[in-house]
Write a structure and sequence with these properties.
about 425 residues; alpha/beta; seven-stranded parallel β-sheet; six-stranded parallel β-sheet; 13 strands; globular
Length: about 425
Amino acid sequence: MSVVTDARKAIALLRKAVDQRRAVRDVKRRVAAQPHHPSRHYRVAVYFADGDVNMYQMRQWYKPLAKLAETWPVVVLSRAVTGASALLADGALPVAFVPTVRQLEQFVADQDIRVVLYVNQNTRNFQMFRYGRRWHVFINHGESDKMYMTTNQFKAYDYAFVAGDAARERLSRVLWDYDLEARTIEIGRPQADHYSGATPYTPDKRTVVLYAPTWEGDRPSAHYGSVRTHGEALVKALLQTGRHRVVYRPHPRSGVVDAEYGAANRRIIAALAEANDADPSAQHVYDDGPELGWQLAAADVAVVDISAMVYDRLAADKPLLVTRPVDPEAVVDTHGYLSACEWLDAGLASHIVEQTDRVLADPEAVARLEQWVRHYFGDTSPGAATARFHAAVDHLMDEWNRWDRQDDEDHDGEEAELDA
């Protein structure tokens, strides 16, 4: 039996290697068909070492980065073939496919990259950290109170762009000997300036409820996903009213660890399709598209899990409910918004209609929301976060110039001493 198992593993590995080589050839062919990257052109690089499964981390930055590129040319440095393939297909930003360190080094040497942005904590980020004389900046892929937001890995970067006061408070509670004033820059949520896009339904008198759960998590402390515990009950209740429209946006990794979680996700999708067949005017939406924006802006109420979606919705300054994790080992930060949010317990999921009506009509809930929006994101008026994002990059460019001039002066001084 062990011989057969080993043979199967060997065949699987061989097939994987063949598929990988084929995928690399395909990406290289598509890169060759793209416009050539002019030498010394790019000033900002976004380093992305992940595959297509984590493309949601990049896609939420497309529009803010495209706007930034009007001032400072931006390129994405893609290390994984599936990630590069998805980036090229999206066509939102110029892409350099640099799977090897040698190719990465050659590209960096040919450009004038002064600021490198990172959307996640991939361990391969350290292969980019080797290049000095440029600022390495963690911009993350969302704002939340998950433990990911306070990792000591923040110290590996020259700077971190954070959303606001809440982020700084969160870091100050956890990180030792970290100069928050010097190394963090508040920019708000520039993605919120691009919460747009056409809704896939015709707006009417129905109350639109966005249900955007996260995945099941890969360890008890991160068991925030609600599809199995809350999702089926709340979606069923909303589908029965005839006055609600459900926009269901599950996490793209739903079911990768827990098969039952994946099965519950599929049942919800099927229930939406069945409801639309029964009443085409309902126009319920299963949303698995790459764009995030219209969902947050259009929904009257959002139901989300503990994830960046809480804060994406908070930045929209509109009512939301947060599902309370059932697993007692799930880590919940009770210092920030989660200490005063509108919780939805699993036992109340079937009563979602009453819960959504309450948060829409309760003036105290509305006032609390306004307070926390300011605490997390500062000024959320249109364009304010984009202006802060651009100002932060401008500041780093000025700092780059200052250090570059200082290096030149030091070098000239050394040469003068040698001549003397």
